[in-house]
Amino acid sequence: MKALITGATSGIGRSMARKLSQKGWQLILTGRNEAVLRQLQAELGEGTEIIAADLADKSEVFRVYEFCKNKGVGMLVNNAGYGIFGKFDETDLTDELNMINVNITALHILTKLFLRDFKKRDSGIILNVASAAGFMTGPLLSSYYATKNYVLRLSLAIYEELRRDRSNVTVTVLCPGPVDTNFNNRAGVSFSVKPISADYAAEYALKKALAGKLFAIPGLSVRAGIWGSRLVPNRVLGAITYNIQKAKKPASDKNGAGSK
C-alpha cells in the first residue's frame, strides 16, 4: 500500500503522513520545503520517499505524477492548499492566481491522472481536502472559498461517475471547519473560533476514506452548520459569512487557529 500526499510538510498533510505510516503504508510526500520533507522522511523511516515541488507551477505537478506513476500508488491525498484574506479588489492578483493553481489546477491534474490509473486496475482511493467553505460563498476570502467549492463539486461529480460505473475506486472529500494549522498565518489572519487539531482532522478523514465514504466532515457543529446553511438564502448567507470573516484579526496579533 502506497500513498501520495501533497502539502505534506505541515498541518493535516503531515498528520496524515504519520498516521498512514503507523498503519503500514509506504509514502511519497511532496511539498515546497525540501528540508522539512527530509526531516519527515527521517522520522518516518524506510518506505518513505520525497519529492520537493511547487504545485503552483503546472510543470512541477506533472513532474510529481511522473515520479509516482509506476510506483503502485493506491491512495492520492490532495491536501496542498492555502487562502488569501482581503477584499477581492484589494488582494494581489499574482498571489491569487498562484493559489488557484495550487488549490484547483494541481488537484485537478493529479486527480485526473491518478483516477485513470486507478480505474484501469479497478482499485484506488482519492482523498481531496476541501473545506466547510466549499458549501458557501466567502466574502473577504472570496477566491479561497471559490476554490474549495470547485474541489467539492468536482469530487461529487467524480463520485457519481464512479458509482454508475460500479467502480471499486473511491473518492472522499474532507470538509473541516477551523483546524489548528499554519493556514491562517499564511492567509494573514487568525480565528477566534476554537479549532480542531490537525491530528483529529487527519484521523477522521482517513477513517472515512478507507471506508469508501464520500464525505468526511469532522465535528457535529460543523455538520449542523453546513446542512443548516442550505436553508438560508444566498444573500443572507453571504452577509453572515462576511461578518464572520470581518471578525478575524491579523495573525501577528494572536497565535491562532488555522483552517482548511
Choose one word for the global shape: globular
Order of helices and strands: EHEHEHEHEHEEHEEHEHHE
Reading side by side through the largest sheet, how are the strands ordered? 3-2-1-4-5-6-10
By DSSP (H or I, 4+ residues per run), the number of helices equals 9
Low-confidence stretches at least 5 residues in length (pLDDT < 50)?
Answer: 252-260
Amino-to-carboxy terminus distance: 27 Å
- Kindly state the mean pLDDT as a whole number? 90
Q: Classify the helix fraction into a percent range.
A: 40-55%
Largest sheet geometry = 7 strands, parallel
Q: What class would the helix/strand composition place it in?
A: alpha/beta
For the CA atoms, what is the radius of gyration?
18 Å
Keywords:
260 residues, alpha/beta, two-stranded parallel ribbon, 11 strands, globular
Structural description of this entry:
It is a single chain. Helix content is 49%, strand content 16%. With 260 residues, it is of the alpha/beta class. The model is unreliable at 252-260 (pLDDT under 50). The protein is built from nine helices and eleven strands.
Short description:
The chain has 260 residues and is of the alpha/beta class. The chain has helices at residues 11-22, 34-44, 58-68, 93-121, 142-165, 183-187, 198-210, 220-229, 234-246; strands at 2-6, 26-31, 48-52, 75-78, 124-129, 169-174, 179-180, 189-190, 196-197, 215-216, 249-250.
